[in-house]
Amino acid sequence: MSAASDEALVRRAVAVATRLGGGGLAGIRRAFDRVGAGETFDTWVGHGANAPISADVVAQAMPDAIAAMAVATRRDSAVLAQLLADALPQIVDELTPDGVLPAPAPGLWSRVRALWRGQR
């Protein structure tokens, strides 16, 4: 596989992880926090250097996304975890140019409640 296709694959994995975990990048951040890597994730958001992360930690933090991508792409989970470990710091950095996590988009229920409140 080429570097361009690997990058596209990683970006798809981030999108899958965002959908599976909910909460956008904040949801991915919570996944890394659960495995003790929240501070590492925060370096990717902040304005300093991006700390590296191991494929093992990524695999622990994002097992559902990696499994879904492995099925979809017929690639080994360990290979996908390594691709994510290599690219995720830069991708998160690019998605957070202001140094803060964007607010997650409201879910369907939140939108229904907002509409309901607006009609009262």
Describe this structure in words.
The protein is an all-alpha fold and 120 residues long. It has one domain: Arc Repressor Mutant, subunit A (Orthogonal Bundle), CATH 1.10.10.690. Helix content is 72%, strand content 0%. The protein is built from seven helices and no strands. α1 crosses α2, α3 packs across α6 and α4 packs across α6. The protein is globular. The N and C termini lie far apart (55 Å).
Task: Please write out the topology.
Blueprint lengths: L2 H19 L2 H11 L3 H8 L9 H7 L1 H11 L3 H19 L12 H12 L1
CATH homologous superfamily designation: YidB-like
- Could you tell me the radius of gyration in angstroms? 16 Å
CATH topology: Arc Repressor Mutant, subunit A
Tell me the fraction of residues in β-strands, as a range. under 5%
Order of helices and strands: HHHHHHH
The portion of residues assigned to helices is over 70%
Any low-confidence stretches, pLDDT <50, length ≥5?
none
Short description:
With 120 residues, the protein is an all-alpha fold. It has 7 helices and no strands. Helices cover 72% and strands 0% of the residues.
Key structural traits:
120 residues; mainly alpha; Arc Repressor Mutant, subunit A
